[in-house]
Design a protein that fits this description.
heterotrimer, A alpha+beta (369), B alpha+beta (364), C mainly alpha (546), A: 369 residues, alpha+beta, OB fold (Dihydrolipoamide Acetyltransferase, E2P), 2 domains, 25% helix, B: 364 residues, Rossmann fold, 9 helices, 20 strands
């Protein structure tokens, strides 16, 4: 039985439609990431599930029961806001004990629960400390076990890593997933960071303007984005504009503005249509000679920047457009290419995804700066 | 275009030493970043360069001229704030033109420079709008325009992107660099995001607990870090404990568990405990190189978009994190598989084992 | 203990039920509408019949209207003076550091804790022949509009400074710093960035000072002499027993007040002068060096001469007399006039206590409604505006309205006074509570709810402890305001005399030894106020949240 289900849920704030007829199913013990830019409605979605806001239309169903009228304290879905919301006037112990105490759990049972959980996250020595005395990572752990202690089986995380240093974010990402799996929790984790979502989610819900743009496993969303927005939001991609010349099954041949023809994967495109092709930066290979069976575009290397695990090669194509290729560090270190090198930018047709050119213009559609 | 020279700058808040003996210099037209964990003092240092707070000790020089006594409005430094701080009671035009107006420039000049800045940021259409109408990224661009408009040649950026969405951050960081370079400015950019620092800097300064640990060009710091902390904080590193087997200047041999590895040179007595850093992306599974084979078993793996992350057990309690490029075709090593990894000699970095233990050294 | 806990749990579970919490809020809104707002505004309308009394009489009419005009001019001028003199002081307190500035900060509160009748008497003495002016050989100020201006200035100045300090502390320093890094001198940055951003604070403090001045009655009577503003005229009319003037003046006063309040708010005053380019040389001089230093000296001097010293004088002059000779015995035994005094004290304090407790109980749900927008944003805005209406009505007019409203119900005098005080103190309490609740982020209570706490439990275990200090200070403020209240009390009472009313009587109808009596009486009031405040400060010190 699915743990959480939304059926045609709409939520308005004045004139603004924050969530627009959303239907989604989140299964028991799934770790779902709700991904989207600021203002896409992700936090509202969380609050709808928690019961802090009531939808105008649609049903919210938890564990098979419609809960629209059920207040938050009876829903068993614990919310953890971005800054953890540890109660500043209570010790770590009192914070963790808050849930069971409010629910009327027996005193001894509460004590047992709290001390076990504190031991699990190795913070038993900090039981008497106040939140202001704990580091960011420690606060997160206390907030997590606080949710757990309340007996909640659903964990709603609102940008749980947003307040942390980039370094800590990377380290603590996996702790969250491990924590959820260990305690058999269903998790809805909201974030604007696609690398975070891709690395820990069982499934991703990509949200935009209150609607689900795409849902699927990280691999599905990463390799086969359904829309142009999804393609540009998840992962780093290069965008090329062009016109369709030939359509054969799922492969289209198109003429790009940079000059030359390329083949790409597409659905529902017609001859003569304006399109945009997206190619992941790591799928663009730079070679000194053109290769068979793949797309080739000519260009010149204008910049090589080491970004750490990969190098970013900026190539100016004939026609002036600038594209970027991500080359793994090991490969780049041994590469004979330098600034000024003439290269062939090669990519397979399967790595090029074409979409209909957006009506509102490219910049607006991908929310470019 | 100023050079910036900082010598022996110190700052204490009560008992807490925020900045200890900071000495650094920045050349004309350079874009440098100062990175370090939260609370390491980088923002305090930046504010002292700007003149927003006063140092307890030490000198700050711009183009050779001592500016210690100069109030902030006279230092000619553009400051970009973490929380953007566009004036909410003025529209975009009012914000960007503020500097020239406050400095008493002539009306023609004010108009010309404001127009130029707005156009450069592609915000000319929106000059009448209040800041709150714009997205976070656009607001920060406007803030940069505002900071440049008074004619400042030195830009100080205090975690300018940390309040923005991840996607916006990754785009705006290259924009920032482009603007600074196009205008021929010098920039000091403070951040805790090492990816950001790598992307935009000519040189990076590593800061930790109030001290500047080391500095260098990004690739040098990344592939040949001189300090263990740099290896840990800049990018990802596996940090392991081992023993020196054969010391040497160019190369040495270290032992981790049952593995013997040829590593970069380090002088230490044979048998001493050492700390070894290996970056996850520099360990290749099943590669063709002949250097440094490490055998292990894959215990976990995760998909991370452009690469796969593996956790490989190489000893009783030793695990190596490995990042290799992901393949759409699905060729990935399954959990449980026994694999051999290769690492080049120069990518096995060896350091003196820290006296206080690894954890303390890294967490600072 | 267990029973208590079970009871709380039961109540808590009730609060989960929507209809229950709705009725609780409904009750508090009903209390507000039917006991606070309604009588205060509607009562006066029922007295409209007697207006004819005044309209016909030319002389009376012009006297009434000039009284109202006098109130208006007085209030506007004093408020402007307050802002001009108070802004620099607020600036000093917030921006500069130093031991003597902390002292200054504490001194600002001084006039606030002194009951206004005490202040009135003190001002009277300070500027008379017995005070410093006489010392310097200058002619003393006799009761008249001059003294009234000085009095109103001294009690509204601290209010303005407090509000401005609060708003400045809230204002993020980063804007001014940003302006400075852009090349603006401190003076330029202040006038082009900080002051405009403080607009709402300046407007708020202006209106507060305005309302205070329009309402103040007791002390004004003491120092007015023959000068007549609205409240004084009403009191004179009361003395003579004419109802007509009461109604006309109250209506006019209220009308002017309403116009000023809503006009100012509607104008959305933005204190931003067009700024084309700065005159750098001039502004540089104004930022550093001699000129600002002179400004500081003037600001502080004004503060001390016109506010602190007049406030302090009283206790210094009469304290010795109160404790010497047979005086203590007489005073404490309640012989003669002192009997009246003590019954007045008992009356004032019991009213104060009642008013505080009742208002606390009913204003808390209202504050929650407004701050947490339980029924939506528009409802909150409406309730917020409505709850501040009693401030806009000058207290004496409010008292008159109350009297007319409740006389249809034969409400005893004591309760009439209680009701008026409830009405007058309600807006301040709600505003304090709303402001305190606004500071507590909603996500704390929301998280508590998702952890399993019902609305009542989450409120009482999370929000309430965090606003404890504000609650306490709100309660103290309500209590002292009630004890201090003169205007409305004068309007509604006929036989009972609260302490301020009594003291005003003693001043207006002197008897042998009355000056000493007033001095001692006001000193006693002062001492008890100070004692209460000290208790508050010590209690709150231990309860600061980690």
């Amino acid at each position: 039985m699915p743990s959480i289900e939304l059926q045609g849920v709409t939520k308005r704030f004045g004139d603004v439609v924050a969530i627009d007829k959303v239907s989604v199913v989140i299964n028991d013990r799934e770790y779902v990431c709700v991904l989207g830019p600021t203002g896409s409605g992700k936090s509202t979605l969380l609050r709808l599930i928690a019961g802090l806001v009531i939808p105008e239309n649609g049903s919210i169903i938890i564990d098979g029961e419609k809960v629209n009228e059920v207040p938050p304290e009876h829903r068993n879905a614990a919310l953890m806001p971005q800054n953890y919301a540890l109660f500043p006037h209570m010790t770590a112990w009192e914070n963790v004990a808050y849930g069971p105490t409010s629910r009327g759990v027996d005193r001894d049972e509460t004590m047992r629960r709290v001390s076990t959980l504190l031991k699990t996250v190795r913070l038993q020595e900090w039981a008497e400390a106040y939140p202001s005395q704990l580091s960011g990572g420690m606060q997160q752990r206390i907030a997590l076990i606080r949710s757990l202690a309340s007996g909640a089986k659903i964990l709603l995380l609102d940008e749980p890593l947003g307040a942390l240093d980039a370094r800590l974010r990377l380290d603590l990402r996996r702790h969250l997933k491990r924590f959820a799996k260990k305690f058999d929790l269903t998790v809805v984790h909201v974030t604007h960071d696609q690398s975070e979502a891709v690395s820990i989610a069982d499934r991703i819900l990509l949200l935009r303007h209150g609607r689900i743009e795409q849902e699927g496993t990280p691999r599905a969303v990463y390799f086969t984005p359904g829309t142009l927005f999804a393609a540009s939001f998840v992962g780093d991609r290069v965008l090329l504009e062009g016109v369709v010349r030939e359509v054969r099954d799922e492969i289209v041949t198109m003429e790009v503005e940079e000059g030359g023809q390329i083949s790409a994967m597409a659905r529902g495109l017609k001859e003569g249509e304006l399109t945009v092709v997206t190619i992941r930066c790591e799928s663009l290979r730079l070679a000194d000679h053109s290769a068979e069976d793949v797309n080739n575009l000519n260009g010149r290397v204008t910049e090589i920047r080491p970004l750490g695990a990969y190098f970013r090669y900026s190539v100016e194509l004939e026609g002036g457009k600038r594209v970027h290729s991500h080359v793994p560090a090991l490969q780049a270190l041994g590469s004979p290419l330098h600034v000024g090198s003439q290269v062939h930018v090669c990519f397979a047709a399967q790595d090029a995804l074409a979409y209909k050119y957006p009506e509102r213009g490219l910049a607006l559609e991908v929310e470019a700066l | 275009m100023p050079t910036v020279d900082i010598r022996g700058v110190r700052k204490k808040f009560g008992q807490f030493e925020a900045v200890r003996d900071a000495t650094m210099s920045v050349e004309n037209g350079e874009y440098v970043s100062i990175i370090g964990p939260s609370g390491c003092g980088k923002t305090t240092l930046l504010r002292m360069i700007a003149g927003i707070i006063h140092q307890d000790d030490g000198d700050v020089r711009f183009d050779g001229e001592l500016v210690n006594e100069k109030p902030m409005e006279e230092r000619g430094v553009g400051y970009v704030f973490q929380d953007i701080a566009l004036f909410p009671h003025m529209d975009l035009w009012g914000n960007v033109s503020y500097g020239p107006r406050a400095k008493g420039e002539l009306a023609d000049h004010i108009r010309a420079i404001t127009l130029e800045m707005l156009e450069m940021m592609k915000l000319s259409q929106r000059y009448r709008e209040p800041p709150s109408n714009l997205s976070g990224g656009m607001q920060q661009k406007a803030a940069v325009a505002r900071a440049v408009a008074p004619g400042n040649k030195l830009m100080l950026l205090d975690e300018p992107l940390s309040m923005l969405d991840a996607k916006v951050r990754s785009e705006l960081r290259f924009e920032l660099r482009r603007i600074v370079k196009d205008l021929g400015l010098t920039a000091i950019h403070v951040t805790h995001d090492q990816e950001e620092a790598m992307a935009i800097s000519d040189r990076i300064f590593i800061m930790r607990s109030g001290s500047l640990v080391e500095n260098g060009v990004p690739s040098d710091l990344y592939f040949k870090p001189s300090h263990l902390f740099t290896a840990y904080f800049l990018g990802e590193s596996n940090i392991l404990t081992g023993r020196m087997e054969e010391s040497g200047d160019e190369e040495c041999v270290v032992r981790i568990g049952h593995n013997h590895l040829r590593a970069c040179g380090m002088k230490a007595a044979n048998g001493t405990k050492v700390a070894i850093a290996i970056r996850p992306e520099l360990a290749e599974i099943d590669s063709k190189t002949d250097e440094n084979h490490i055998k292990g078993t894959i215990r976990a793996r995760s998909f991370e978009g452009s690469f796969m992350r593996y956790i490989v057990q190489v000893g009783d309690n030793a695990f190596l994190r490995v990042k290799n490029q992901a393949d759409r075709s699905g060729h990935e090593h399954p959990v449980g598989e026994n694999v051999t990894m290769n690492v080049r000699t120069e990518h096995v970095r060896v350091y003196e084992f820290p006296a206080g233990g690894l954890n303390k050294e890294i967490r600072g | 203990m267990n029973v208590g806990r079970q009871l709380l749990r039961f109540l808590g579970s009730l609060s989960s039920i929507k209809s229950v919490s709705l009725s609780a809020y409904g009750l508090s809104v009903g209390y507000f509408l039917f006991l606070i707002l309604g009588p205060a505004t509607l009562g006066i309308l029922s007295g409209l019949g007697s207006v004819g009394q005044v309209i016909g009489d030319q002389a009376l009419m012009s006297r009434a209207l000039s009284a109202v005009l006098a109130s208006f001019v007085l209030a506007i001028s004093v408020s402007i003076l307050d802002i001009v003199a108070g802004l620099p002081l607020a600036w000093l307190i917030v921006r500069k550091k130093g031991v003597w500035l902390d002292m200054l900060d504490a001194l600002v509160d001084l006039p606030l804790i002194i009951p206004t009748v005490t202040l009135g008497f003190s001002v009277l003495l300070f500027w008379s022949s017995g005070g410093p002016l006489g010392f310097l050989g200058l002619p003393p100020l006799t009761p008249g509009w001059g003294l009234v201006v000085l009095l109103h200035f001294s009690f509204s100045y601290p209010v303005v400074v407090r509000v401005l300090v609060g708003k400045m502390l809230e204002l993020n320093l980063v804007y001014e710093t940003a302006a400075r890094t852009l090349g603006a001198t401190p003076f330029t940055a202040a006038r082009t960035v900080t002051v405009p951003l403080l607009s709402s604070g300046i407007v708020a403090s202006f209106l507060l000072a305005f309302a205070r001045s329009m309402s103040e009655t007791g002390a004004t009577i003491m120092v007015a002499g023959v000068f007549e503003n609205g409240p004084i005229f009403i009191r004179n009319a009361l003395d003579v027993g004419l109802e007509g003037p009461l109604v006309v003046t109250s209506l006019a006063l209220t009308a002017i007040s309403v116009v000023v309040f809503y006009a100012v708010k509607a104008l959305k005053v933005n204190l931003q002068l067009p700024f084309r380019r700065a005159n750098v040389d001039v502004e540089k001089k104004l930022s550093r060096g001699l000129i600002p230093k002179i400004g500081v000296i003037i600001t502080v001097a004004v503060f001390f001469v016109f506010v602190v010293f007049p406030a302090l004088l009283l206790s210094l002059k009469y304290a010795p007399a109160a404790v010497s000779g047979g005086a203590p015995g007489q005073i404490l035994s309640g012989s003669g006039i002192w009997g009246d005094f003590w019954s007045g004290v008992i009356l004032s304090y019991s009213i104060g206590l009642l008013v505080t407790v009742i208002n606390l109980l009913f204003s808390l749900p209202m504050a929650v409604l407004i701050a947490r927008k339980r029924f939506g944003r528009s409802v909150s805005v409406v309730l917020d505006s409505l709850s501040s209406v009693p401030i806009v009505i000058p207290s004496v007019a409010l008292g008159v309205s109350m009297k007319f409203f409740w006389r249809n119900f034969a409400v005893p005098e004591f309760w009439l006074i209680v009701l008026s005080h409830l009405s007058i103190t309600y807006p301040y309490l709600v505003a304090t509570l709303v402001s305190a609740l606004d500071d507590i982020p909603t996500y704390l209570e929301e998280t508590a709810r998702t952890l399993g706490a019902d609305p009542l439990t989450s409120f009482s275990t999370i929000t309430l402890p965090l606003v404890r200090y504000s609650l306490l200070s709100g309660a103290i403020l309500t209590f002292t305001r009630s004890v201090d209240e003169t205007g409305a009390t004068l309007a509604v009472s006929s036989t009972m005399r609260t302490v301020p009313v009594l003291l005003v009587d003693w001043v207006k109808k002197p008897f042998p030894g009355s000056e000493l009596a007033v001095g001692v009486g006001t000193s006693i009031l002062l001492l008890t106020s100070v004692a209460i405040l000290l208790i508050l400060k010590t209690l709150s010190r231990g309860k600061r949240v980690a």
